[in-house]
Design brief:
This protein has about 60 residues and is mainly α. The protein is about 75% helix and about 0% strand. The protein has a domain of about 40 residues. It is built from one helix and no strands. Keywords: Membrane, Transmembrane, Transmembrane helix.
Length: about 60
């Protein structure tokens, strides 16, 4: 039985399928990377906002 990569030499259908799957995988990987970056920036923004809020709350507390 020929391998997946070499069987497409006869009619070209298999090689097109492999090419399409590779492009889909690359698209999905890029999409996931973008989503991860957005999530990290959002989480960092929440962390910064919490730090600012904690500083404001602590500054308003009377310690004595």
């Amino acid at each position: 039985m020929p391998s997946t990569l070499t069987s497409g030499v006869e009619d070209g259908k298999q090689s097109k399928k492999i090419e399409r799957n590779t492009r889909e995988r690359l698209f999905i990987e890029i999409l996931l990377l973008v989503m991860l970056t957005i999530f990290e920036l959002f989480a960092q923004g929440l962390n910064d906002a919490q730090s600012i809020l904690a500083g404001v709350v602590c500054a308003g507390v009377d310690h004595g």
